[in-house]
Amino acid sequence: MTTYGTILIPVPLGQAAPVLHKVCTAGYATPAGPRFCLVHPDRFVDGNGVFALAGPVSAALGVPVLAAFQYDGDRLELEVWRDGVRAHRYDSWPDRDEKNPNRAPVGADPAAFLDFATGPVDSHRLASALADTPIDADDMDVDGEPGYVWAQALHWDVLAALGHPNQVIRRAQWDYHHMRGAPQTLAEVLGSTELVALGTADRPY
Fold it and tell me: Are 30 and 191 in contact (CB under 8 A)?
C-alpha cells in the first residue's frame, strides 16, 4: 500500500507559503479548505521529512501543526507540534518491528487533536479511530484480528471526525513522489486548486 507523509496546518495556504518556502527543501503545498493547508515534503531529502519540518513550521507560524506518516498501509504515526516542540505523539502500531508485536496504539488521546477540527467533532468516531477500533465493518480486519485493515482508513476516520471533507482527506493522503510522478492525474484532481512548489521541487504540470 501507499506510504505518505503530510503536515496539516491550521492556516490558509497564502499565509503559510512564505514560511514553507524558507523551511521546506523540496515539496508541494496545497490548500485544505479555507482555514487549513497541507505540506507534502520530499521525504527522501535529509532533514525534510514531516517530523523534521513540523517543529520549525509550528515555531515560525505560531500555530500547532499535525504531522502524519503512514507506512505501507500498516502503521499511522501522528505528531502534534507547538512552538517548535513536540506536544503529542500517536502511534497506531508502536511494536510493528518487534518479534512479538503488540497492536495496542499509544497516544490515543482525542483532546490532543482538537486544534485541527474544522467544526463540530464526532467524538465517538475520533476516539474509536485512535483506539484502532473501526466503526465501519468494511474497515475491520477480515481475519478477525483487532484494528483497521489499512492505516489509511484510520487516518481518514481521524480527519473525518475532526470535520474535514472527503476531498481534503484524500489530499492529506497524497505523497510528494506520487504527486510528482502523475502530473496528469494531479492536474485533473486539483482542477483550479492552487499548488505551491517548494524549494527545489518543480511544478508537476
Answer: no
Identify the sign of the CA torsion 135, 146, 163, 152: negative
CA contacts within 13 A on the Cβ side of 156:
15
pTM: 0.92
Give the pLDDT confidence of 124-150 residue by residue, as tens digits: 999 999 999 988 877 777 666 778 888
Report the distance separating Cα 193 and Cα 101, nearest Å.
42
Could you tell me if residue 156 is left (phi over 0), alpha (psi between -120 and 50 degrees) or otherwise beta? Answer: alpha
Q: Cα(41)–Cα(14) distance, rounded to whole angstroms?
A: 17
Q: What angle do the packed helices 50-61 and 13-23 form, to 10 degrees?
A: 120
Query: pLDDT digits over 16-62, tens only?
Result: 999 999 999 999 999 999 999 999 999 999 999 999 999 999 999 99
| CB distance 20 to 198 below 8 Å | yes
Tell me the C-alpha distance between 67 and 77, whole Å: 8
Instruction: Cell numbers for 15, please give them.
Output: 499565509
CB atoms within 10 A of CB 3: 16
Q: How far apart are CA 8 and CA 198, in angstroms?
A: 16
Separation of alpha carbons 94 and 98, rounded Å:
9
In 3D, which of 68, 50, 58 has the Cα closest to residue 19? 58
Report pLDDT digits (tens) over 147-187. Answer: 888 899 999 999 999 999 999 999 999 999 888 877 666 76
